[in-house]
């Protein structure tokens, strides 16, 4: 630098991109955040405030009554129970299937292993949406019984996983060889090897896959919509939209409150497990 | 059935899974399997005399539950769906009447279905293009030394994880032409708000906006990880060669990101063809089919009109499109894309 004191113009020119960057980041965050803020504000406004022109940004006072009204407008206690049961069962089954298949593919000898790979690949290529109609028919008559409006009906079609099997297999193969060999030398059978050695070491990827599965199950919409037709068996997402269909765009306060019922549990999980989720997803995409 | 398909995470699922599967088919075998160790040091390896104690048996035991579920809820429905596409059936009558390819012929000649295909293409182009371009832009922005960068990334990513059904409802309120958030902003600059969801010309752009809003954070996060993996000296070399900002972007950043772009394109394509909850909640395919896409059409024909044949034929079209995208990903992906 020739001049010991940079001129104002130079300083500005140097600073401007940085200022602009901060401005643009703020803009992006605002675009993503404002609709959610609008939801939160709407959930505590009175109907009169919501229907004032122009609508005020902030409510005069917080109307928590909207949450009470939303809770009473539909059996949200049942919706929560149903979603929690089907999510936990679905995640649990997916994890078990993923672990067992991955272990078999990684560590067990079998002559027709390639056939299993092909079958799993085929499963990956069949989108859920193409199977909804036949699956509905299958579940409406399971050995003479209807599984429509049942937990098993909601859970079972999504209980298998090819992605999980591939993801876990990959990480099982990356485990340190020496530890596995040592365990084998010690006479460790496959069940103990899986339970005492592989699973504890693979914990991070299990958590990541569990979280991905959890988010998918909690938010699942199309299948629960199709396989339930009674209020008491609906999940949160489906129950919310039926309430919305019924009350429509007239009662925004309680409707926004009800949307918060659905969103908040996952936001809590996100805040708590953000690192796992983002790292898991980027690792999946950028590795290789 | 694979994972729930409209979450970003499961998109990774689909593509990664396929990808790794392809590698494995190429003959890469497990490390332990390649050099099997004796069970115990003293005893040479002997296959157990009884089948139910053998490793084969354990293998079958481990993979059967997963494959059985796939058999019942993926492979078999696929076959059944192909069959249903060849019959006429109202889902109640005890008999189905065989109509051959009549359902496909109907779809080919139907004006609504042509509109559905057109909507799906427009929606997909808008959704994929929008989330990739904006995702790359925000990733470039966040790839600088800025305070609060991680917090911004966390906020941008959050909508990806939220329920499409709930988000759709929130956006109906945001889009309200008189009392919504957007109308409030447009009021500042004295532009009357369009009747977003009631006007056939605006409804499709509106659902595309919501899709991009919800999914752009996914592209941002993935692109950001990709940007951070580009070696610094490439930029230094380009700078020494006298490349300006734009040229460095063209000659270093974009080519180095191409595998990630490819991954994101495929993921977003597959995901957007399956976007259901947002459309069901916001417009139910309307007004006058302006937002009716393939997946919604399948649902509508099957579970509202009870026309199993047409629903199944529509589902076959959806399947063929998604299958073609996946094949494209497998075939072209590995060769054409520059890997850094």
TrEMBL record, chain A:
SUPFAM superfamilies: MetI-like. The keyword Transport applies. It is found in: Cell membrane. One of its GO terms (biological process) is transmembrane transport. It is a multi-pass membrane protein. It holds the Pfam family BPD_transp_1. Residues 80-273 form the ABC transmembrane type-1 domain. The chain crosses the membrane at residues 21-41, 79-108, 115-137, 149-168, 193-216, 252-273. Belongs to the binding-protein-dependent transport system permease family. This is ABC transporter, permease protein 2 (Cluster 1, maltose/g3p/polyamine/iron).
């Amino acid at each position: 630098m020739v001049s010991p004191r940079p001129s104002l113009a130079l300083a500005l020119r140097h600073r401007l991109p940085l200022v602009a960057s901060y401005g643009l980041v703020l803009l992006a965050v605002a675009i993503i955040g404002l609709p959610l803020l609008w939801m939160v504000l709407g959930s505590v406004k009175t109907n009169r405030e919501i229907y004032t022109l122009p609508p005020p940004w902030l409510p005069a006072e917080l109307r928590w009554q909207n949450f009470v009204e939303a809770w009473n407008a539909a059996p949200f206690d049942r919706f929560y129970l149903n979603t929690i049961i089907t999510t936990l069962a679905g995640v649990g089954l997916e994890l078990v299937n993923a672990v067992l298949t991955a272990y078999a593919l990684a560590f067990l000898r079998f002559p027709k292993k390639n056939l299993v790979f092909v079958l799993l690949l085929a499963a990956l290529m069949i989108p859920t949406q193409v199977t909804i109609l036949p699956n509905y028919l299958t579940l409406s008559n399971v050995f003479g019984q209807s599984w429509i409006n049942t937990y098993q009906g909601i859970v079972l079609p999504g209980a298998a996983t090819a992605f999980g099997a591939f993801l876990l297999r990959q990480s099982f193969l990356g485990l340190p060889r020496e530890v596995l060999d040592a365990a084998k030398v010690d006479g460790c059978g496959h069940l103990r090897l899986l339970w005492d050695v592989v699973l504890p070491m693979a914990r991070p990827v299990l958590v990541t896959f569990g979280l991905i599965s959890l988010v998918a199950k909690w938010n699942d919409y199309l299948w629960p919509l199709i396989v339930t037709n009674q209020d008491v068996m609906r999940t949160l997402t489906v129950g919310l939209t039926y309430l919305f269909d019924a009350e429509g765009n007239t009662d925004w306060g309680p409707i926004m409150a009800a949307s918060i019922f659905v969103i908040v549990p996952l936001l809590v999980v996100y805040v708590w497990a953000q690192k796992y989720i983002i790292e898991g997803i980027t690792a999946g995409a950028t590795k290789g | 059935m694979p994972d729930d398909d409209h979450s970003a995470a499961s998109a990774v699922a689909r593509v990664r899974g396929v990808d790794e599967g392809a590698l494995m088919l190429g003959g890469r075998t497990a490390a332990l399997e390649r050099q099997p160790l004796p069970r115990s040091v003293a005893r040479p390896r002997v296959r157990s005399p009884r089948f139910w104690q053998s490793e084969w048996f354990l293998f079958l035991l481990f993979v059967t539950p997963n494959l059985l579920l796939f058999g019942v809820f993926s492979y078999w429905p696929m076959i059944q769906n192909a069959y249903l596409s060849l019959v006429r059936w109202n889902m109640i009558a005890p008999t189905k009447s065989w109509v051959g390819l009549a359902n496909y012929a109907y779809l080919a000649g139907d004006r609504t279905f042509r509109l559905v295909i057109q909507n799906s293409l427009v929606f997909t182009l808008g959704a994929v293009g929008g989330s990739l371009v904006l995702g790359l832009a925000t990733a470039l922005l966040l790839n600088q030394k800025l305070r609060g960068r991680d917090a911004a990334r966390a906020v941008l990513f959050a909508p990806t994880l939220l329920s499409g059904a709930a988000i759709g409802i929130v956006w109906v309120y945001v889009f309200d032409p008189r009392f919504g958030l957007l109308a409030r902003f447009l009021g500042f600059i004295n532009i009357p708000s369009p009747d977003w969801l009631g006007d056939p010309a605006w409804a499709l752009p509106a659902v595309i906006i919501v899709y991009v809003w919800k999914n752009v954070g996914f592209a941002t996060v993935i692109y950001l990880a990709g940007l951070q993996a580009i070696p610094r000296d490439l930029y230094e070399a380009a700078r020494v060669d006298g490349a300006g900002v734009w040229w460095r972007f063209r000659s270093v950043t974009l080519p180095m990101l191409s595998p990630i772009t490819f991954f994101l394109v495929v993921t977003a394509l597959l995901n957007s063809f399956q976007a259901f909850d947002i459309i069901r909640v916001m417009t139910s395919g309307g007004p006058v089919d302006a937002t009716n896409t393939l997946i919604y059409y399948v649902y509508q024909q099957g579970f509202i009109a009870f026309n199993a044949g047409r629903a199944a034929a529509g589902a076959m079209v959806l399947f063929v499109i998604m299958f073609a995208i996946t094949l494209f990903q497998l075939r072209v992906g590995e060769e054409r894309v520059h890997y850094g």
